[in-house]
Amino acid sequence: MDRDDMIRRLKSKLNEKRFIHSIGVEYTAANLAFRYDVDVKRARIAGLLHDCAKCIPTDEKLKKAVKLGLPINSSEKANPDLLHGKLGAYYAREKYGIKDEEILSAITYHTTGKPDMTMLEKIIFVADYIEPNRKVIFELPVIRKEAYQDIDKAVIHILKNTLDFLDGKSDVIDEMTEKTYQFYCKNYKR
């Protein structure tokens, strides 16, 4: 499937705000791919499709994940919206024809991250957070600068902000986010 076909399909599956966000992530992922010498086309595809399952109604996400046999952790059971990455990877493969496992993994973990991410996975994780249409989040200008100077530093910063935000709201925190934060704090080399 070419980009035009992906765009047409995404427009029919996402609301306008989510579609604009996806275009912003595609754009940002391409820029970061140039910076970190990663295949730009693969980064664009992962960025464009990262939220392809985001607009599935919350109550349907869990049902679909169970029906498809996707692994579901306790955080995802408590907050099925967290499943949009796993569902997105499934739809990217089945509906958009993506067979590249690294792209599918980048889509799966774009919200939580995962320990020892590939550069493409880091790019999608960071691009989702810093894309130009993002509402201003705490320290966003600093994180945008870090993303182009030291992507691992940006990953840690994003994870810390996410954990602090969720902890302050007493929302469900996906254990993968915590594992990822601990991994990068332990292994970060300045």
Question: What does this protein structure show overall?
Answer:
With 190 residues, the chain is mainly α. 69% of the residues lie in helices and 0% in strands. The chain is globular and about 40 Å long. It starts with a helix and ends with a helix.
Describe, in short, the structure shown.
With 190 residues, the protein is an all-alpha fold.
Based on the model shown, name its key terms.
single chain, 190 residues, mainly alpha, 11 helices, 69% helix, 0% strand
Q: Topology, pairings included?
A:
Blueprint: H1 3-13, H2 16-36, H3 40-49, H4 58-68, H5 74-78, H6 84-94, H7 101-108, H8 119-130, H9 140-149, H10 151-169, H11 175-187
Q: Note the total helix count.
A: 11
Q: How much of the sequence is in beta strands?
A: under 5%
Query: What structural category arises from helix and sheet content?
Result: mainly alpha
Q: What's the total number of strands?
A: 0
> Which descriptor suits the 3D outline?
globular
**Distance between the terminal alpha carbons, to the nearest Å?**
40 Å
Order of helices and strands: HHHHHHHHHHH
What is the averaged pLDDT score?
A: 95
Helical content (DSSP H or I, runs of 4+)? 55-70%
Instruction: Give unreliable regions as ranges.
Output: none
What value does the Rg take, in angstroms? 16 Å
- Biggest beta sheet attributes: none
